[in-house]
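FAQ
Q: What does a multi-component entry look like?
A: The components come first, one per line:
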Amino acid sequence: MVGTPQDIKEITIAFDVMGSDHGPEEVVRGAAQLSLEAPHIHALLVGDRDAIDGVLAETKHRAERISVQHASEFIAMDEKPGEALARKKNASVGVAAQLVADGEAHALVSAGNTGACVLACARSFQLIPGVRRAALAAVYPTRGTRGEKEDPFSLILDVGATVEATAEDLVTFAVMGSAYARIISRNERPKVALLSNGVEPQKGPPRVVEAHARLSTMPGVNFVGNVEGVDIPKGTVDVIVTDGFMGNVCLKMLEGVHDTVVELAQYAYKEKLRWRAGLAMLSSGIQRIKDITDWEQYGGAPVLGFDRIFIKAHGRSKARAITNAGKVAAKAVAHQLGTAIQEGLPR
Amino acid sequence: MVGTPQDIKEITIAFDVMGSDHGPEEVVRGAAQLSLEAPHIHALLVGDRDAIDGVLAETKHRAERISVQHASEFIAMDEKPGEALARKKNASVGVAAQLVADGEAHALVSAGNTGACVLACARSFQLIPGVRRAALAAVYPTRGTRGEKEDPFSLILDVGATVEATAEDLVTFAVMGSAYARIISRNERPKVALLSNGVEPQKGPPRVVEAHARLSTMPGVNFVGNVEGVDIPKGTVDVIVTDGFMGNVCLKMLEGVHDTVVELAQYAYKEKLRWRAGLAMLSSGIQRIKDITDWEQYGGAPVLGFDRIFIKAHGRSKARAITNAGKVAAKAVAHQLGTAIQEGLPR
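Then the predicted structure of the entire assembly, as tokens:
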């Protein structure tokens, strides 16, 4: 049994090792690296024991900071989350979530099937009192920089957990996103905005107009009003609040633009010598466009609203992204993200 | 009084000359060019007579294909559409719309305040029987090419006329967008899709799920199911259907990405000699990225659903875009877009 957040000396992170695009290898290697870098973090690896031990045997790690919990099944990327979770009682993500719920670990990291992850959390965790619906947040790079570390990242939520959000849900998402940006990006007063079809307070459907009115009177949130689609890649604000339907489409649109840029670069490399020389000279510039549009480079996307921390790493995560996701999860635990959210909610 | 669509020899297009970002000059020059290129089109220029005559005096044109209707007022870009239209009885866009409604012209082109344009249409025109809400469609360039002319354009609607759309509205938008793509892009069976947060038929809010079910059984529409945000820049389909809230955010996001690319190019030109040489070599590549993300290059965005044709040109349109918008409007009139829409609606 782990201690209460106030007196944590060592933070245990449960890693769902299975079900990522690269299989267990990258996740185990990421956790192994974490054991070398972070003395205060213990990694609890959940998945096929033989596969985990095989990777650990070939990877430098600190054995005293890693333990293994066998889980005989896992959920693949293309499985239907609800059916698969119901059928596979020993799926690694379900076992890992329950270990966190039971107090055997403080937080969960997974690079597996997003829907199955969110469902596993919903099944094992409790919603924070006052939170009606959870939100999946995405961290994505922008043109602007901000915060203490000047990281050029913004948060957008929800991106798919709650397809239809009420005004009350949007207010909750604003509080949750603000708390996350404050704790993880060390940004004292993150700018929070609602996504709408115009900056005026009366723009948008009724739920957005009502959320605007409520957020305008909340002292705990640095609410700057509405932003438009053009502000998403620009990074005008730190936290963009919308429903899961809109957020999902926007996030995938960023991905589409990134694919276009990558395709162009590949085409140039293959087809044209003249282009190739130009691209070599321009590599830092092309890299900058890619950085701006590459929403994958920042591995961790938190699911916010539950009483336990869950960081969803991208399915294509390499070891380094997993190590970072583990650190982010530990930071959220150490700074009591759940308590910060609860204290920020309207009474 | 102009003839009925069936026996049109000459098509009259009313141009709202005022209220664009460049004032009357570019619009009048665009109409003047049209008079040189298109013998079957007559341009009725609505706005300040002195200003119009001043530009015409300095611009080559065919005088017998141009007439002028004086309007003493106009609505600026930053005015509130409803208030301004109510106060300015002689605003050029309102006068022009009424001329079209009265049969003095077949279609309207404006590069002015979008909201005022849509309201002026709503005030003077009738909705096509069976259409409950009008839609503003945007034509934007994509990675893919299609249709007879292989133009790399897709249509997305609604992008702001109808913030909240019902399932019935979405079905109507699909029919209208399909008719427009068929007539204007000469694309016999345009692929039509609903924008959602997943390709499965049950993905999305109830209105989208219901629209999916209805469209699946409509023989007149080449409905290919749901597409995701990633498909917008890719140009997977010809017509993307969504509500005005989502469509507006997506369109402005494309604009934001374009701004980012342009900013990068400017930065490179200013700052780095090494980059400059690379950019020169890469100019066709950079142009291709700009083309993909520059939603402005295709001037005309139709408002669909009214019994009269209205093409909204971008506020920043230069003469060439206005000329093109006039041709698109004439094409829509000649091919009886309104009739095609009405025949495609579910009975």
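Q: Is there any commentary attached?
A: Sometimes. For this entry: Chain A has three domains: 5-131+305-344, 137-248, 256-291.
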